[in-house]
Amino acid sequence: MKRFLKSNKIVSLLAVLLSLVSCGNPYRKLEQTNQKVPSITEYKPVFEKELYRCTVNGKVLFKKFHLSGVLFFKAMPEHATRVVFQNEMGFAFFDFEWNAQDSFTVKQIIPQLNKPAVVKTLRKDMELLLMRHLNAATEATFAADNELYHRFTLDKGFAYYVIDSQKLVRIENAGKSKVITMAIGQKPSLKAMPESVFIKHHKAHFTIELKKIEQHADE
User: Fold this and answer.
1) Is 57 within 8 Å of 211 (Cβ atoms)?
2) Measured between alpha carbons, how far apart are the two ends of the chain, in Å?
3) Average pLDDT of the residues in 153-162
4) Cα–Cα distance list, 38 to 46, 110, 112, 127, 129 (Å)
5) Secretion signal: which residues (predicted)?
6) Containing domain of residue 31, as a range?
């Protein structure tokens, strides 16, 4: 009887472990495609300036935090890009810049956010959304559930750009499990910035919600 119970425990443990392994790899059902498809760079945003209402919500240990304001994207001379997050009074939480070679500079940041891990996370969010710092040589395409996945190799893990019915619907960063997921809203054209973005950090436990501000709208 004891041997039977012990055997059952082992079987149950193996079942749990197998379940965890299968749940930990959300991309196991992807099948690489051999057909030629356009590069995801056809969807790379091109803009002069874009404004978004930005809301950040998260939790560190048992303490919740919240930030809200305006996220400002602007194309600068010589193919540089600035991304500034500021409150309604114009006080900047952070000000980032990328040059034409994708070299990254922190021009300004508040002390509360000036932590290497935080800067790295925010930088990755913006680079994934703007399709910067992607190694074109590593692009590979996969298919699953009528969706097309464009995968790029990153320093850690992969970036996936998910196309459904020729529309960019999600951006995901993952290794053995998902780290970041971005739900991409409607885009008025292929290279336009989306109307909305919802970013979820699965390990860092915070979200960023963006809703585009029409530039002719009264503030």
Assistant:
1) no
2) 75
3) 95
4) 17, 40, 42, 20, 19
5) 1-24
6) 2-212
Write out pLDDT tens, residues 101-154.
Answer: 999 999 999 999 999 999 999 999 999 999 999 999 999 999 998 999 999 999
Task: Give the whole-angstrom CA distance, residue 91 versus residue 67.
Answer: 12
**Count of C-beta atoms within a 10 Å radius of residue 55:** 16
Q: Where are the alpha helices (DSSP H) in 98-171?
A: 116-130
d(CA 154, CA 69): 30
The answer on pLDDT for 215 being more than 80 is no
- Evaluate whether residue 219 is within a structural domain: no
Asked if residue 71 lies in contact with residue 85, where contact means CB atoms within 8 angstroms, the answer is yes
18 occurs within a structural domain: yes
| Residue 218 belongs to a domain | no
pLDDT grade for 1, boundaries at 50, 70 and 90: low
CATH number, domain containing residue 203: 2.50.20
Q: How far apart are CA 164 and CA 143, in angstroms?
A: 10
Question: How many independent structural domains does the chain possess?
Answer: 1
pTM metric for this prediction: 0.84
Answer yes or no: is 197 within a domain.
yes
